[in-house]
Amino acid sequence: MSAPADIVRTLDELGLTVPAPVEHPFTGAVESRWVAPDQIAVACQMFRDADYFFESLTCVDRIAPHGVFELIYTFNRWGLPSRVACRVWAPQDRPVPTVSGVFGGADWNEREAWEFYGVSFAGHPNLTWLLLPEGTEFRPLLKTFTAPPPSEYDDSLDAPPAPPADAQAAPGH
Amino acid sequence: MPKQLPVTEPLDTYTLNMGPQHPSTHGVLRLRLMLRGEQIVVAEPVIGYSHRAHEKMAENRTYAQFLPNTSRQDYLSGMIYNFAWVEAVEKFAGIAVPERALVARVILAEFNRISSHLLWIGAFLMDLGAPTPFLYCWDDREAILFLLESVTGSRLTYCSGRFGGLNRDLDDDFPRRAREVLAKLKARWDEYERLIEDNVIFRGRAIGVGILTRDQCLSYGVTGPTLRGSGVPYDVRKAEPYGAYPRFEFDVPTRSEGDVLARYLVRVLEMKQSVRIIEQALEALPAGPILTPDSIGVKKRLKLPVGTQYYAVESARGHYGILLVSEGGTEPYRAKFRTPSYPNLAVLGDVMPGSYVADAVAVLGSVDLVMPEVDR
Fold first, then answer.
1. By the 8 A CB rule, do A13 and A6 touch?
2. Radius of gyration, alpha carbons of chain A
3. What is the model's pTM?
4. Helix (H/G/I), strand (E/B), else coil: A27
5. Cis peptide before A125 (omega within 30 of 0)
6. Which of A86, A160, B58, B290 would you label with A172, given CA atoms 20 to 30 Å apart?
7. CB–CB of A79 and B333 under 8 A?
8. How many Å lie between the alpha carbon of A10 and the closest alpha carbon of chain B?
9. Which residues of A touch B306 (CB under 8 A)?
10. How high is the ipTM of this complex?
11. Helix axes B78-93, B99-127, angle to 10 degrees
């Protein structure tokens, strides 16, 4: 098995990744790399072939400062600490290639990023709601999100009903 | 003349909805099974029924205010989740933890792991039609809950971790009571073996059922006892040692078969290893403060430096990861919870096709799902 340093060097030499800059340092990962959005599927395939497992996919809202979504993919191996973080800055209006064909675990994670942020994944077989109710139109994890008005069926926010006028005061006290 | 309703799918297959209110789905999970006769053709887990937006809540709370949320993600090993959040923030902020608190956390977390596994064994055997083990497991689990309650004040949703230690110290009598519980547990192992493992009906339902391959685990990111039942000795406590774990000796039990029985046996062996860890930790429990003197407490606001951090622990169900993004404020800019049940459930869509509908319950039960943790 190749060490994390080896696989990221191969990726760097192929021009798929560049070492991540330090203004947002990533701790807890052995290696951290920037990946261009259209290269992520190729990079993922290389991790898959090198026996890495799909650990997590996190979307971060970087729209206000940079106009992008930051997608953080982490890959790991069963053994010594070898977490590699791949960070993709995906422009808001451009779809990112899906990696669900490479890693089965990416399927649900991409659906989550789509429903909570609106990141679209090109080629995803079933890009639909996973955790939110079907038909939800808002993107709750966006920083611009404000809660929609309560549904007309939701009476939990109404004032409690007034007690009937002839209600007896509790005896004593 | 008999009426016939319009047919919407090919006549040789039909769809069966298992859940969301099925007793063996352990929480609100729906499995959409397409069947041909009794054989499963497609199995699609439908989740999200207990989604509470923990990740959104984390963005609107200070680090300390989020503490009660942690154990509500996985209510069966809440202590481990609570400590994971505390340790992630401590590591990010560079808060030192007293020795006594580090060891005490290991003791409490391992007791919690045993209680989680015991509940799983009871509930899983109940799924397979054996109600007796449930009562035995409940009895043993009660002893652990009683012990943990005496330290933390809660029985299920623990919130005893503080940045820099624990909120309450272990009292002087704690080691004695803990050893009593361990003795009770150790006396039970043989009984469990005779009652469950040697039971011919259980073996018949568990051997060769729901085989999970190494490649499926790799593709979905399956971890925990479910992965170790497929022969991979991956345990975060060994792979990325945290807290006081490196100083204790324990093995990572594995089985190579990858079936339901293998996942059961791994959990039983794991409980014995937890007992081993607790025994060493009770011996090594140092004296001293339980909370660092410069702890900021829960009321003052903690600020983390700008950056991103991934912190992982081994929960009762597998690799639990917290990805924290901080922009320097008093609240996380983004908190992602990588829960172990999530990939462990996703992989079932790959595992179940080909098996029979009666085995669906056994396979589903064998991965030890906690739905609030999947849905967050």
1. no
2. 23
3. 0.86
4. strand
5. no
6. A160
7. no
8. 21
9. 23-24
10. 0.84
11. 150
Nearest to B89 by CA among B97, B99, B79, B101: B97
| pLDDT tens digits, one per residue of A127-170 | 888 888 888 888 888 888 887 666 655 555 555 556 666 655 55
B-chain residues within 8 Å CB-CB of A55? 221, 319, 321, 338
A71-81 pLDDT tens trace = 999 999 888 88
C-alpha span between B43 and B45 (Å, rounded): 7
> A148 versus B105: which is more confidently predicted?
B105
Predicted confidence (pLDDT) per residue in B290-344, tens digit: 887 776 665 667 888 888 889 999 999 999 999 999 888 888 999 999 999 999 9
Which residue does chain A place closest to B313, by CA atoms? A28
- Tokens 């943790």 belong to residue: B373
Strands of the B307-314 sheet, one edge to the other = A26-27, B307-314, B319-326, B334-338
**pLDDT at position B50, please?**
87
Give B81's pLDDT tier (boundaries 50, 70, 90): very high
Q: Does the pLDDT at position B371 exceed 60?
A: yes
> What's residue B109's pLDDT?
93
Contact of B314 with B277, CB cutoff 8 Å? no
Q: By the 8 A CB rule, do A76 and A55 touch?
A: yes
- CB-CB neighbors (< 8 A) of B92 in chain A: 27
Q: Edge-to-edge, what's the strand order for the sheet holding A17-19?
A: A17-19, A31-35, A84-91, A68-76, A53-62
Chain A residues with at least one Cβ partner in B under 8 Å: 23-29, 48, 51-56, 58, 60-61, 72, 74, 78-81, 83, 85, 103-105, 107-108, 116, 129-133, 140-141
DSSP B173: T
Q: What angle do CA B21, B23, B26 make, to 5 degrees?
A: 90
C-alpha B191/C-alpha B275 separation (Å) is 17
Task: Say which DSSP state B193 is in.
Answer: I
DSSP-assigned letter for residue A37: G
**Which residues does residue B166 pair with via DSSP β-bridges, in sequence order?**
B161
Helices then strands (H, E): number in chain B?
A: 15, 8
| Chain B residues within 8 A of A83 when measuring between CB atoms | 310
Joined tokens for residue B359: 């085995």
Q: Are B110 and B277 in contact (CB under 8 A)?
A: yes
